[in-house]
Design goal:
With about 100 residues, the chain is mainly α. It contains 5 helices and no strands. The protein has helices at about 1-10, 20, 45-60, 80-85, 90-95. The longest helix has 15 residues, at about 45-60. It is globular, with a radius of gyration of 15 Å. The N and C termini lie far apart (about 35 Å).
């Protein structure tokens, strides 16, 4: 998969977790939903590995890291991440969504 190839190319390992993703039906569409909270639920327990995998997923998708101290006064977070979160779910509505970059 793109995830395992990207992580292995950049970080040199983690083939042992391939089945954690495939057995839990985590595909490219669901990657945006994968975070440090969800990885232990699919069988990845090593915290250093969790941090590395989450970082690799963000890099692969090109989205910013979450910020727990983010204030509501800031502009909306990354447009691409918001789009991918909506697209992660199956159905006619999400299938019809198309990314429209923000132009300044």
């Amino acid at each position: 998969s793109a995830l395992s190839s990207g992580i292995n190319a950049e970080y040199g390992g983690f083939w042992q977790y391939k089945s954690c993703f495939t057995e839990n039906f985590v595909d490219g569409r669901k990657l945006i939903l994968v975070d440090a909270n969800s990885l232990p639920k699919v069988g990845i327990q090593d915290f250093d590995h969790i941090k590395t995998i989450c970082s690799a997923i963000r890099n692969l998708l090109g989205v910013e890291a979450p910020d727990s101290k983010r204030t509501i006064y800031l502009p909306p977070r990354d447009h691409l991440a918001t789009f991918l979160e909506k697209k992660a779910f199956l159905g006619n509505h999400s299938d019809s969504l198309e990314f429209e970059p923000i132009t300044a």
